[in-house]
Write a structure and sequence with these properties.
There is one protein chain. This protein is an alpha+beta fold. It has 2 domains: 76 residues, Glutaredoxin (3-Layer(aba) Sandwich), CATH 3.40.30; 117 residues, Glutathione S-transferase Yfyf (Class Pi), Chain A, domain 2 (Up-down Bundle), CATH 1.20.1050.10. It is 52% helix and 7% strand. It has 9 helices and 4 strands. It has a 4-stranded mixed sheet with strand order 2-1-3-4, with helices on one face. A hairpin with a 5-residue loop joins strand 3 and strand 4. It is globular and about 50 Å long. The protein starts with a strand and ends with a helix. Keywords: Transferase. One of its GO terms (molecular function) is glutathione transferase activity. Its EC number is 2.5.1.18. It comes from Limibacillus halophilus. InterPro entries: Glutathione-S-Trfase_C-like (IPR010987), Glutathione-S-Trfase_C_sf (IPR036282), Glutathione_S-Trfase (IPR040079), Glutathione_S-Trfase_N (IPR004045), GST_C (IPR004046), Thioredoxin-like_sf (IPR036249).
Length: 205
């Protein structure tokens, strides 16, 4: 397998899964500062120019960080990072993993790249404001859903945890975000300090 990655990007969650499962994977950094994600060679791998992308040994390309994390855990996890298929815990994990992808990740994109979502130069600030509101609403829903923790599934660490921690780490004002959301703050801290992930976290954030 070959992972295309960049520090601080969505590839963090994929690297986290690789680290947790002790998986060896060829890696190639995509230099965002040099706009390599827009180079023809990378667009041939992922036409959207987004990072990460995982190329399997047979040439199959998997994109979207949540999809890659799920694939790796299902294929190589041997019971780690994913509850058993068909269990209520698996259903809950999938619910919140895709909730985070559709809501938190999308709101982050709108907040940091508002010019992509409007052709009105005077509409950029409105896009950012709406994105911030959407992000916080989604965080409030997650905060209510989280139990005694520290993780999404209680004491069981899963692929959902580095994913949510990454999305909240990107927040533009973390003290404000976590001030009224102690369960999300606890999950974020638990992932950042996890022994297998602490060094990786420091490299990315």
């Amino acid at each position: 397998m070959k992972l295309y990655y960049a520090p601080g990007m969505g590839s963090f969650v994929v690297e986290a899964v690789l680290a947790e499962l002790d998986l060896v994977c060829e890696r190639e950094i995509v230099e965002v500062a040099k706009h390599e994600q827009s180079a023809p060679s990378y667009l041939a791998v992922n036409p959207r120019g987004q990072i990460p992308a995982l190329v399997l040994d047979d040439g199959t390309v998997v994109t979207e960080s949540a999809a890659i994390a799920l694939y790796l855990a299902e294929t190589y996890g041997k019971g780690l990072l994913l509850p058993p298929a068909g269990s209520p815990e698996r259903a809950s994990l999938l619910r919140w993993l895709f909730f985070a992808s559709a809501n938190l990740y999308e709101a982050d994109l709108h907040y940091f790249y508002p010019h992509r979502y409007t052709r009105d130069k005077d509409g950029v600030e409105g896009v950012k404001a709406a994105a911030a509101e959407a992000f916080h609403r989604a965080c409030d829903i997650l905060e209510t859903a989280l139990g005694d923790g520290p993780f999404l599934l209680g004491q069981s660490f899963s692929i959902g945890d580095p994913y949510i921690a990454m999305l909240t780490e990107w927040h533009w004002d973390k003290p404000q975000l976590f001030a009224t959301r102690p369960k999300l703050a606890r999950l974020h801290a638990a992932v950042a300090s996890r022994p297998r992930l602490a060094a990786l976290w420091a490299q990315n954030f």
